[in-house]
Amino acid sequence: MKYRPASIAWMICLLAGLAFLGLYWSHDIVPQDNDTPSYIGAVGGPFTLTDQDGHKITEKSWPNKYLLIYFGFTHCPDVCPTGLNKIAVALDALPADKLAKIQPLFITVDPERDTAADLKNYVSLFHPKLIGLTGTSVQIEQVEAAYKVYAQKQGTGPDYMVNHSAFTYLQDPYGRVAGLYSHEMTAQEMTKEISQAIK
Ligand code: NI
User: Fold this and answer.
1) What is the pLDDT of residues 124-161, one digit of tens each?
2) How far, in Å, is the centroid of ligand 1 from the Cα of 86?
3) Which residue from 69, 135, 190, 195 could staple onto 139, CB 3.0 to 4.6 Å apart?
4) If you measure from the C-alpha of residue 37 to the centroid of ligand 1, how many angstroms do you get, rounded to a whole number?
5) What's the gap in Å between 78 CA and the centre of ligand 1?
6) Gap from CA of 32 to ligand 1 centroid (Å)
7) At what angle do helices 5-25 and 79-92 cross, to 10 degrees?
8) Whole-structure pTM over 0.85, yes or no?
9) Are 174 and 63 in contact (CB under 8 A)?
10) Does residue 2 carry a pLDDT above 90?
């Protein structure tokens, strides 16, 4: 049988997603009440990266903002474009006062190939507020670990792929992950979830 690389990428994303869900459901954090999702406190953390203009940034670089974070890479054939288009639609459907409180971020899982300039060009295709972030391989590994991102290089030569999980994270101004949205969630659902989460 012949598999298209794109289908394989989707399958890997699905498997990574399931692995991730298992990871945070098995996490021994007990929700304080029914309104507190179990992943609160289990994902996210400090990071130091470089933005698309070459400036050093951290998770504290946007005070009082909610960060909407997506991990991917600019050579991604379909998962990232689909996810980023959905984020753009979801953002544009928010009331202006809530949109103003959000900084959307795209963090590369492919720092050896995605330069700051590549990221700047790429994110501009999706949303004017979106900022691309890269870093050293160690910095990227650290941020992936904090957010429990699955990312695995596949293949050799210049056209290699990076299979990766495709969750969108909403992080509140205190650095806590306040929302975790799957690749399958619709833009309308994401708008509703973000709108409810932003105070
Ligand atoms: Ni991707």
Assistant:
1) 999 999 999 999 999 999 999 999 999 999 999 989 99
2) 13
3) 135
4) 26
5) 7
6) 34
7) 60
8) no
9) no
10) no
**Is residue 86 exposed (0-12), middle (13-18) or buried (19+ Cβ within 10 Å)?**
buried
Of 171, 177, 187, 163, the C-alpha closest to 84 is 187
Distance set, CA 139 to CA 129, 142, 144, 191 (Å): 23, 5, 9, 30
Give backbone dihedrals phi and psi of 155, rounded to 5 degrees, phi first: 90, 170
Q: Provide φ and ψ at 58, rounded to 5°.
A: -135, 180
What's the 84 CA to ligand 1 centre distance in angstroms? 9
The CA 199 to ligand 1 mean position distance, Å, reads: 30
Q: Per-residue pLDDT tens for 151-186? A: 999 999 989 999 999 999 999 999 999 999 999 999
Two tokens, residue 88: 């753009």
For the chain, how are helix, strand and coil distributed in percent, rounded to 5?
35, 20, 45
Q: Return the percentage of the chain with pLDDT > 90, whole number.
A: 78
